[in-house]
């Protein structure tokens, strides 16, 4: 039961923050703070994946003790990416509140981040040990906690001084994340039940990302009533590039992963590359071509279609990827977990079906005209 609940939670969490990160970056329309927040969310999701994916495999397959090495390496990578997360969040503060100068503060953040990473890389951490020493867990988290405290104070003061309603609670999300995280560091080895606090800690980070996304959606670009079509076309190009790059990575992963395990039969992993390339890259290139001579981008139904379609496609690809990995590793799943994966796949197909209906309705309302648009 733990394996099913925890794995399902991790899949939803990782998919959510990565999708929100991509949407932040693509929807930023050149606003640098939201580009940074988008990168920050993707770093959070991808970094946590290095720990959560091996953990999910361990829970579903041979157990945590048999996969200590991979879990430890995953924790090391996550500790580094979380440090990068806060450095990006700090720069988001400087851009949002137009902070100039304060070089000493910036140097302090970077020195603390470098110290945290350096301490994390020391062999004394014994990341791949079943029972790593508590003292080094404390040592490496001291500079990390200081960075967190500085970030809390900065966002708290700036949001009040600037009457920033969109970011008024961001400081609280960071307080909660550390409030749930530090007891895990200190007491989880002695009292394993304390490890459950990682779930609300994770939700606090999701809240941080959601705050930045909602702020982006509610704030208009200065001097503009609506976004220019030129930027909308660029957002489609960015999404197409993301799908193309992910498709290439999935192809490399499929080849190397099956080669490493000497797997020669058919596998779902071979479908990931094709789905991303056709349903992602090629589809968006067609949308770009159509939008150049139509009002497609200004239609509400098309914008709703894009959101549902992207989420549905990410869920579909995730379910195909998970099925492929399970095939290659020859993992035997119980009926409940098999049904859960099939359920996610079914939901994703339903979402894409709804999205395609919206696309057809939008294209019925579409007006064709001739114009030249500079990219």
SSE arrangement:
Layout lengths: L1 H25 L5 H29 L7 H29 L6 H19 L12 H28 L8 H18 L10 H21 L10 H32 L8 H23 L8 H30 L5 H31 L10
Helix pairs in contact: 1-2, 1-7, 2-3, 2-7, 3-4, 3-5, 4-5, 5-6, 6-7, 8-9, 9-10, 10-11
Describe the structure.
There is one protein chain. The chain has helices at 2-26, 32-60, 68-96, 103-121, 134-161, 170-187, 198-218, 229-260, 269-291, 300-329, 335-365. By secondary structure, the chain is mainly α. Helix 5 (134-161) runs antiparallel to helix 6. It starts with a helix and ends in a 10-residue tail after the last helix. The model is unreliable at 222-228 (pLDDT under 50).
CATH topology of the largest domain: Rhopdopsin 7-helix transmembrane proteins
Form type: globular
Find the CATH superfamily of the largest domain.
Rhodopsin 7-helix transmembrane proteins
Round the Cα radius of gyration to an integer and report it.
22 Å
Give me some keywords for this one.
375 residues; mainly alpha; Rhopdopsin 7-helix transmembrane proteins; 2 domains; 0% strand
Structure described in brief:
This protein is mostly helical and about 375 residues long. The protein has eleven helices and no strands.
């Amino acid at each position: 039961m733990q394996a099913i609940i925890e794995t399902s939670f991790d899949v939803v969490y990782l998919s959510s923050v990565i999708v929100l990160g991509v949407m932040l970056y693509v929807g930023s329309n050149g606003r640098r703070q939201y580009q940074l927040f988008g990168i920050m969310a993707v770093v959070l999701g991808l970094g946590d994946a290095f720990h959560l994916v091996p953990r999910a495999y361990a829970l579903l397959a041979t157990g945590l003790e048999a996969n200590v090495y991979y879990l430890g390496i995953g924790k090391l990578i996550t500790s580094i990416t979380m440090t990068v997360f806060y450095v990006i969040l700090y720069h988001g503060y400087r851009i949002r509140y137009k902070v100039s100068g304060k070089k000493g503060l910036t140097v302090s953040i970077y020195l603390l981040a470098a110290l945290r990473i350096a301490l994390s890389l020391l062999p004394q951490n014994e990341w791949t040990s079943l029972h790593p020493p508590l003292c080094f867990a404390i040592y490496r988290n001291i500079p990390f906690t200081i960075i967190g405290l500085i970030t809390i104070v900065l966002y708290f003061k700036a949001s009040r001084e600037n009457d920033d309603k969109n970011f008024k609670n961001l400081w609280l999300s960071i307080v909660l994340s550390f409030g749930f995280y530090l007891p895990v560091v200190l007491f989880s080895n002695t009292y394993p039940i304390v490890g459950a606090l990682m779930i609300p800690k994770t939700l606090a980070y999701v809240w941080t990302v959601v705050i930045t996304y909602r702020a982006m959606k509610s704030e208009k670009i200065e001097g503009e009533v609506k976004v220019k079509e030129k930027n909308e076309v660029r957002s489609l190009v960015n999404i197409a590039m993301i799908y193309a790059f992910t498709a290439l990575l999935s192809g490399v992963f499929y080849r190397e992963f099956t080669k490493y395990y000497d797997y020669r039969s058919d596998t779902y992993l071979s479908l990931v590359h094709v789905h991303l390339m056709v349903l992602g890259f090629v589809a968006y290139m067609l949308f770009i071509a159509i939008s150049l001579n139509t009002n497609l981008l200004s239609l509400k139904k098309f914008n709703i279609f894009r959101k549902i379609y992207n989420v549905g496609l990410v869920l579909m690809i995730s379910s195909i990827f998970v099925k492929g990995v399970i095939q290659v590793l020859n993992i035997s799943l119980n009926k409940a977990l098999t049904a859960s994966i099939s359920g996610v796949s079914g939901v994703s197909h339903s979402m894409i079906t709804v999205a395609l209906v919206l696309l057809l309705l939008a294209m019925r309302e579409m007006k064709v005209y001739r114009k030249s648009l500079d990219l």
